[in-house]
Amino acid sequence: MNLPDISHLADALADRRFALAAAVAALAGLVRGFSGFGSALIYIPLMAALYSPRIAAVTIVLIDFAGAAPLSLREFPKCDWRDVLPMAMATAGAIPFGAMALVLVDPVALRWFVAFLILILLVPLALGWRYHGEPKLPLTIGVGLFAGFGAGSVQIAAPPLVLYWLGATRHVATVRANFMVFLLLTDILGVLVYGWKGLLTPDGIALAVLLAAPFFIAMACGAYCFHGTSDTLYRRIAYAIIGCAAFFSLPLFDGILR
After folding, report:
1. Which of 142, 143, 182, 200 has the fewest C-beta atoms under 10 angstroms from its C-beta?
2. Are the CB atoms for 242 and 122 separated by under 8 Å?
3. What span, in angstroms and rounded, lies between the C-alpha atoms of 221 and 4?
4. Is the distance from CB of 58 to CB of 194 less than 8 angstroms?
5. What's the Cα-to-Cα distance from 131 to each of 7, 136, 166, 255, rounded to whole Å?
6. pLDDT tens track for 28-63
7. Which residue from 203, 165, 226, 242 is spatially nearest to 18, judged by alpha carbons?
8. Cα(20)–Cα(16) distance, rounded to whole angstroms?
9. CA 248: distance to chain centroid?
């Protein structure tokens, strides 16, 4: 892995897309801090429209890992490790296959897939469909494999976890802790796999470094706003932002975003 130099940073700043990219990073960070998940659901489709799916996936995994680690470590005592560990192990087995798709699939086709995947998964989330039974190991493994492929290919692992974990019997604070710990573990795996596949390029790392500041500041604001928020408002705000981001990321709007 080659690290960026000052020229890579200067080129990224000079790119006319950078200002909009910084706004996208701030919005994604705000939702990440507020809800514990959802940053990739906003960041990936919009950044893929601005740059490419590969740049979007690489930058968000680097930014999210660096920014979420301090907050996620504090959630370790609050999460349910009986749910998190089996899910993380299954996810680890599927992430390399998702990374292969990121390398091999046509970028425009991948963007259509990402946008439609988010919009389709958002329907059961917004309607309140949940898995209300007790966690079962085979189902946990299946959800983990699906989440792992999504994480490896487009850094989208949260929706199947939401459907599985956000049942009526689970308090939102426990679910939020589960999300944050799980996503920290998948970020670590994602960085390792992307480095192994040669996806961590100097240009991508430079852009991640520059976008980290707006992401981190907004994430801190989101975490502050979470305290005292009702479960209903928590979900409605996250879903509304995610839906808008997925819709406006469709290749149909490239003339506006690029």
Report:
1. 142
2. yes
3. 29
4. yes
5. 50, 11, 8, 40
6. 888 777 766 667 778 888 898 899 888 998 998 899
7. 203
8. 8
9. 17
Residue owning tokens 């801090």: 33
- Sign of the CA dihedral 23, 24, 25, 30? positive
Q: Give the pTM.
A: 0.72
19 with 159: CB under 8 angstroms?
Answer: no
Could you tell me where the DSSP H helices lie in the chain?
Answer: 6-14, 18-35, 39-50, 53-74, 81-104, 107-127, 137-154, 158-165, 172-196, 202-226, 231-248, 254-257
The count of other CB atoms within 10 Å of the CB of residue 78 is 14
Closest residue by Cα to residue 38 from 200, 188, 183: 183
Nearest to 30 by CA among 236, 172, 223, 184: 223
Neighbours of 126 (CB within 10 A): 15
Model confidence over 206-242: pLDDT tens digits? 999 999 999 989 988 877 776 655 666 766 776 777 7
